[in-house]
Amino acid sequence: MEYYQIAIDGPSGSGKSTLAKGVAAKLGILYLDTGAMYRACGLKALKLGISTKDAEAVEKMMKDIKIDITHEDGTQHVMLDGEDVSEEIRMLEVSAAASDVSAIPCVREAMVDLQRKISEGKNVILDGRDIGSKVFPDAKYKFFLIADAEERARRRLAELQAKGVTDTTFEDVLKDIRYRDHQDTTRASSPLVKVEDAVEIDTTHITIDEMIDTVLFRVNED
Ligand code: DC
Known about the structure:
Layout: E1 5-9, H1 16-27, E2 30-33, H2 35-48, H3 55-62, E3 67-72, E4 75-80, E5 83-84, H4 92-101, H5 105-119, E6 124-128, H6 131-135, E7 141-146, H7 149-162, H8 170-186, E8 199-202, H9 208-221
Parallel strand pairs: 1-6, 1-7, 2-6, 7-8
Antiparallel strand pairs: 3-4, 4-5
The protein binds 2'-deoxycytidine-5'-monophosphate.
């Protein structure tokens, strides 16, 4: 049997994870949030007090890291060295750390290997920055999400507030989004790019259901 992948790429806060989760539930396929893996690497560096920009120190750290992804009732859990860090990795300071370490080639190699391994032998929808360009360049379906930076910051702030975070401002989130947009698109190793065969969806003014329907329409066409 031939398995397929659905690649969802785009900048932070463009709606990738909401879309991917919704599509996975409708199609009954696996959803893999690849950003969570880079977040776990960033979190480990923060915990160890390693500079997230110090490629040599991060490379050393990567020799002794264990990241496992588990799924319970469709919800992804991220285990870092045996500890469930699914909540902790969502904090704002971890976002920038994840973006920093994700520019380091050995981190990318390890995460891409893990993503391919987890996806083996199943239909899967993955969200990230390099899914359609690097992880699964032959993915059957590719989408690239975009949205205004301010709208993306509003969404991220709402997510943080829903988790009980009260000391983060809109400006903090917007600054993080701009920092990561720049870094994630300009890094040398697998930068965020829209590949030619990806379908672009501007999510600024559309609802989640409309996003999901756009993807399902394409998949159901076949
Ligand atoms: O999707 P996210 O915001 O949780 O991702 C956190 C960071 O991880 C993001 O700023 C860049 C990096 N990342 C990446 O380089 N490649 C991916 N496939 C996913 C995330």
